[in-house]
Design brief:
single chain, alpha+beta, 5-stranded mixed sheet, 21 helices, about 30% helix, globular, Xanthine_DH_Mopterin-bd_su, Xanthine dehydrogenase molybdopterin binding subunit, AldOxase/xan_DH_MoCoBD1, Ald_Oxase/xanthine_DH-like
């Protein structure tokens, strides 16, 4: 076992502990960015001047009326920017735009003594606009060939030969929606300037170093004049990886110009209408199978809805392509990607970062064609799993390690859920209930862990030991409720060999740990845990030398366990506090900067090949649903999950992440339906689902009635911190089992072997239309498939099956 993954005697990691801020969370004493405003004197409030048109060129902005509003202090415009007028890393997101690119785009900001004064001032600003044509939907963007950014192509094997060898070939089209992050805490920042003109910014950001970088170039000052701190976030889910930077820059610019603290916080409607979402996708595909139902070839094009600017769309698309295989061996593949440019908010990172979109495509394909191949969907999936010991690689060329875990978690879920018996019970229930049907589906996941951009796979930490033996740690990761800080305290305590109560964690700050990566890609514990372990090991080695002298032993024979240093074969011992005190008087350095970089990674973005991931996380979920044939309404009766987190750093935290990720994934796939005004009226481009009243989120009523989650046992990950694996993103994709169960339940209303298409999100309305399709015979009666490569049929983006005859007639 590697040094990084080996656990010492009596480790604090692996123990189930509550979240380090749990008490503050439940008592309401936990502070978030905007809470700090009440503790700050003379704060100004920033409010956006929005233009409620989808697209247009600004011909004039008149700020004088705003300045006449009582309490308005200043209006910020492009003329006030001393540095670069851009809030993005691609330099395509002007902070103060000349062109309105989406409905509600902010073109100026008003600073007021009160929030109400700033709001009234923003309403008074006059903006003249030369309105331009707008592209709102992904379909319209594809038709207009409105694209931007990279267009990657992933090629593996020989797809022509693969299709020639296929006994069955299918084609189709699948379009699915994005998702709103709906974190409890909206975007917020508080900027202060000191007597030397240096900026201190409190920001609700997943990437403090990049917030620092953007603020630095907007203000035209070096990075050392800008300090960014993230105390904690009330949720992030990727929505605060890139998008907080410009908002923090507005607050910083205001503070720099006025000399007063400036606060910014969106209300919920502003957050929903002005911040990016998960990318919706369109997929066109052609797939071939041999006579036994094994995939021979896949040819697909994935189009992501990037919105008006690139943001993180290129890496999101890249990860989608890298995950289209999911758990399945595809010997011959050609997958192309492109990014649509639309006049909507700039879509951004969201838990899974494109991985869910790519994996959903292959799961939709298999769920849809299984009945046409005469196979149970579970059987079709099992036949196509990656196999251990076969040297199989992903379509981008990475060897699939631990492939045996795909079958292991799958079989454990089958056993835990009692699949065979329950399928018989469901068949009996369905035969006796013509208007209500049940179904049970299993899906698995294989999710790559690391940033696709190799340079981001590094982490830093600062560990301080004080004379009294207490320890303070700071690392580059941010806490958004996911429990990262809890795990990092456990890692520090384990490495130093001390009780957890000796360790405290300081807020994430750019002047403590520089040049950090975003807390994203599920890599927070891997990167920052590795860095903390490295720093603590430096300190422990120094202290072991001191202890060895005191105990009369060799340093290699000394162990520090539960806060006591002992030498092997001796009864002598030295308490931690005494050891630290002695080290101080011997002038031993009691602070250390730690660093970690993920080894073994390589990625060639041009050829779209390499080894971008350190390892894969695996999991499987079985979901049973019940569907009402009159309304399409459904309930989740039971969920069973087995998930691979390696050797868990903090089991209770990890189980919570699995549960939360699953529910959020189920929300994306079944409930959360983003709608824009696509009419040619005055509100074209307006987000219609801009509140919790119109955008449906999972709640207690959508929770599984029985929810069983367990972590894969004996699953130590070689070469990762204390043998653990990442947990943040992978569980979201376990919710594919909900959608596939709904598909099968809808199909149960039709004849045996019927195949139905199911829109995403699979709302009750969508399920109802799938039921109607099943009753009419579904795809099985109207959608043919090719044998030996002959012509095939597909289905349209809106879920309606189209036959060749309909397509030719333009129906």
């Amino acid at each position: 076992m590697s040094h990084l993954s080996e656990r010492p005697e009596k480790p604090v990691v692996g123990v189930s502990l509550p979240h380090e801020s749990a008490f503050q969370h439940v008592t309401g004493t936990a502070l978030y960015t905007d809470d700090l405003v009440q503790r700050t004197k003379d704060v100004l409030h920033a409010y956006p001047v929005q233009v409620m048109k989808a697209h247009g060129r600004i011909t004039a902005i008149r700020t004088e009326p705003a300045l006449a509003v009582p309490g308005v202090v200043r209006v910020l415009t492009k003329a006030d920017v001393p540095g670069v007028n851009d809030a993005g890393m691609k330099h395509d997101e002007p902070l103060f735009p000349d062109e309105v690119m989406f409905h509600g785009h902010a073109v100026a900001w008003v600073l007021g003594e009160t929030l109400e004064a700033a709001r009234l001032g923003a309403a008074a600003v006059e903006v003249d606009l030369d309105e331009l044509p707008s592209v709102i939907t992904l379909q319209d963007a594809i038709a207009a060939e409105s694209f931007h950014g990279a267009r990657p192509l992933m090629v593996h094997g020989d797809i022509d030969a693969g299709f020639a060898d296929s006994a069955h070939v299918f084609t189709g089209e699948f379009q699915f929606s994005g998702q709103e992050h709906f974190y409890l805490e909206t975007h917020a920042a508080l900027a202060q300037v000191d007597e030397n003109g240096q900026l201190f910014i409190q920001s609700s950001t997943q990437h403090p170093s990049e917030t620092q970088e953007i603020v630095s170039h907007v203000l035209g000052v070096p990075a050392h004049e800008v300090t960014v701190q993230c105390l904690r976030m009330g949720g992030g889910f990727g929505g605060k990886e890139m998008q907080p930077h410009g908002f923090a820059a507005i607050a910083a610019l205001g503070a720099k110009l006025t000399g007063r603290p400036v606060r910014f916080r969106f209300n919920r409607t502003q957050d929903l209408t002005m911040s990016g979402k998960r990318h919706g996708f369109n997929a066109t595909w052609k797939i071939g199978f041999d006579a036994e139902g094994r995939i021979q070839a896949l040819d697909a094009t994935l189009t992501a809805d990037g919105g008006w600017s690139l943001d993180l769309s290129e890496p999101v698309l890249a990860r989608a392509l890298c995950h289209i295989d999911n758990t399945y061996w595809i010997p011959n593949a050609r997958v192309a990607g492109r990014i649509a440019k639309t006049n909507t908010v700039s879509n951004t990172a969201f838990r899974g970062f494109g991985g869910p979109q790519g994996m959903l495509v292959i799961e939709d394909i298999l769920g849809r064609v299984a009945p046409q191949l005469g196979l149970d969907p579970m059987e079709l999936r099992e036949r196509n799993f990656y196999q251990p010991g076969q040297g199989q690689t992903t379509p981008y060329g990475q060897l699939v390690t631990q492939a045996e875990r795909i079958s292991t978690v799958w079989q454990q879920v089958r056993d835990d859920a009692g699949i065979a018996d329950r399928k018989r019970e469901i068949a009996a229930f369905n035969a006796a209930h013509p208007h209500t049907k049940r179904a049970l589906a299993i899906t698995g996941i294989k999710f790559g862990i690391s940033f696709n951009l190799t340079a981001f796979n590094q982490g830093g930490a600062l560990v301080l030991i004080y004379k009294d033996g207490s320890v303070l740690i700071t690392h580059g990761g941010t806490e958004m409720g996911q429990g990262l800080h809890t795990k990092m305290m456990q890692v520090a305590a384990t490495t130093l060999g001390i009780p957890l109560h000796k360790v405290r964690l300081a807020p994430t700050r750019t002047d403590k740990v520089p040049n950090t990566s975003a807390t994203a890609a599920s890599s927070g514990a891997d990167l920052n845990g590795g860095a903390i372990k490295n720093a603590c090991e430096q300190l422990r080695e120094r202290l072991l030398q001191v202890a060895a002298t005191q105990l009369g032993a060799n340093a290699s024979d000394v162990r520090i366990v539960e806060g006591v240093a002992r030498a092997l074969g001796s009864d002598k011992e030295l308490a931690w506090d005494d050891l630290v005190h002695t080290a101080y008087f011997q002038r031993v350095q009691l602070s250390a900067a730690g660093f970690y970089r993920t080894e073994g990674l390589h990625w060639d973005v041009k050829s779209f090949r390499g080894t971008p991931f350190k390892y894969f996380a695996y999991g499987a979920a079985a979901t049973e649903v019940e569907v009402d044939g009159f309304t399409g309404a459904y309930r989740i009766r039971r969920v069973d999950i087995v998930h691979d987190v390696g050797e868990s750093l903090s089991p209770m935290i990890d189980i919570g992440q699995v549960e939360g990720g699953f529910v959020q994934g189920a929300g994306w796939l079944t409930l959360e339906d983003l709608r824009w005004d696509t009419s040619d009226g005055p509100n074209r481009g307006r987000l219609l689902t801009q509140a919790a009243s119109t955008y449906k989120l999972p709640s207690f009523s959508e929770m599984p009635e029985e929810f069983n989650v367990r972590l894969l046992e004996n699953a130590t990950e070689e070469g990762a911190v204390y043998g653990s694996k990442a947990v943040g993103e992978p569980p979201l994709m376990l919710a594919f089992s909900v959608r596939e169960a709904l598909r099968q339940a809808a199909a149960a209303f039709g004849p045996s072997g019927v195949s139905v298409d199911l829109a995403s999100p699979a709302t009750p309305e969508a399920v109802y239309w799938a039921i109607q399709e099943a009753r009419q015979g579904g795809d099985a009666s109207r959608l043919g498939h090719a044998v030996n490569g002959h012509a095939v049929n597909g289905h349209s983006a809106n879920g309606k099956v189209r036959t060749d005859a309909e397509a030719l007639s333009g129906a």
